[in-house]
UniProtKB/TrEMBL annotation:
It comes from Wolinella succinogenes (strain ATCC 29543 / DSM 1740 / CCUG 13145 / JCM 31913 / LMG 7466 / NCTC 11488 / FDC 602W) (Vibrio succinogenes). One of its GO terms (biological process) is rRNA 5'-end processing. Gene3D superfamilies: YqgF/RNase H-like domain. The keyword rRNA-binding does not apply. The keyword Hydrolase applies. This is YqgF/RNase H-like domain-containing protein. Residues 1-95 form the YqgF/RNase H-like domain. NCBIfam families: PRK00109.2-2 (NF001026), RNAse_H_YqgF (TIGR00250). It comes from the Bacteria. Signal peptide: none annotated.
Length: 127
């Protein structure tokens, strides 16, 4: 089982890959980083994840700061499986294209989890 995560300031988008199928999961609402890390740890344990794929922005003016924050967040996890980082640049734009108007409310988290799915598919494509 592989879990992918798109780490945002308000939500964590989440997707899974199991039995040859990649699917978006419900996002994790983020009240603070410690609560979000606990919730992600719980999900990783419940799903029996062996690998965590996290998106890291490689483009943009604040990419270095965002990478530092994401790596810090991953460091808060108790997860001891393999952690991989994948370029998440433009994953939200790709996810928005996948939705194509099916979800009008970006606050429902579907976009975040579809972004995690894009990140997961990028990882799987690199194997």
């Amino acid at each position: 089982m592989i879990i992918a995560v798109d780490i945002g300031l308000k939500r964590l988008g989440v997707a899974q890959y199991a039995a040859g199928v990649a699917l978006p999961l419900d996002p994790i609402l983020r009240k603070n980083r410690h609560q979000a890390a606990r919730d992600l740890d719980l999900l990783l344990k419940e799903k029996g994840a062996q690998k965590l794929v996290a998106g890291i922005p490689k483009e943009g003016s604040s990419s270095e700061e965002m990478e530092r924050r994401i790596r810090h967040f991953i460091g808060l996890l108790e997860f001891r499986g393999e952690v991989c980082f994948v370029d998440e640049s433009y994953s939200s734009k790709e996810a928005f294209e996948l939705l194509r108007g099916r979800s009008r409310d970006r606050r429902d988290g579907k976009l975040d989890s579809l972004s995690a799915l894009v990140i997961l598919e990028r990882y799987l494509g690199s194997l």
